[in-house]
Amino acid sequence: MARTTLEAGGHAYTVNFNDAPRRGDRYQSIVIAQLIDELAQNSITGTVHVATDLTGARPKTARDGICGVAGVPSRHFPELDTQPYEFGLSLEVGGFTPLSGRIVVPQQPNFPDEFAGVDLGPVGMRRSPVTIVVRTLQLDGQNRPVPLPGATVEISSIWRTTLDMSGAPSAPDIVSLRPPLYAERPQPGTTLEPVTMTPVAEPERLLERAAAPGASVLEVSRTGGLASGSLAGINVDDSDRIEYIEVADVAGPADPESPASLILALPVQNRHLQGAPVQEVTVAALGPPAADLNVDGRSGDATAFVDTVAPFATDPVVRISGGPPPDEYVRAFRYLTTTDAEGYGYLPPLTRVAAVEIAASAPGPLTAPATRFTPRYGESHNSFQLVLE
User: What is the distance between the alpha carbons of residues 130 and 346, in angstroms, rounded to a whole number?
Assistant: First the structure.
């Protein structure tokens, strides 16, 4: 080997004059991205937490939202010259919805002499959803504000980003999804179709063990008629936990009354306690109208942009189909509420908009003009008042 020893400053150094190592043998960036705030369109300044299932690779972060994964490609992808590789990556920043997905390193015929990492470029991060709590008031005979119950409150227009706020607002063609999207959904190509869910008459089926968010297997007390392709309703009587998810497979004894494991097509998003009911349900489309997604959707999105809100007048369950993932079933809510006896109304969880206009009306007739409100995304609940005259 072309090595020699040099002395400098009283120290001996062994120097290798061989050719430089191959590109694929060097420690380097494997995937890199710059995270930006989707609403402000500027780089994220908070601490970025990076995680990966690529064994031996090291998460890396830098200023201005720059992050990624580093390693020695020839160790992680020894046959990259003949096949692609795939690994998981998740990114978390305080105040934003976590982002996770699969990274594909494409086949590179000249590897390991050459290697090109995956550059994701700017990646928009979604702000964590907020709930806007609106209180409607009217003035009494002494010109004092008093609660006004029974007022209809709605988002009447929106601004998508802070850069748009100097211009005219857009129509509020948005709906709130509960739970949020399970998977990536493309635009065009994704449809939201109202459906009816009918429980199947059967003996009780309960969760044998609690299921945490992200679980894709449910341990249940009996199989019953559930099979691959069946639809399972979990906690259907609990409006905060309810989920409808397709069963991909059933693992257990042939006896339908024996305990079994349900392998789900999509992981649960809510926490389901031991003893929670799991029912088989059938689904039927309500027919037109349906809505199409206007902006790409991402797993975890609580707000969806659609071409029309007409199908969602009754807060229906909708079937969301589009792209490679299985169909998903969530409830869709318009950004509309009626105030209670104390004048309070709660708009559904909101994200992905920089500002909104909120209007209200009540019998009388009483109205409040549309008033701009900028959500404070660092707070889970935002308070807002309207005086109707």
Answer: 11
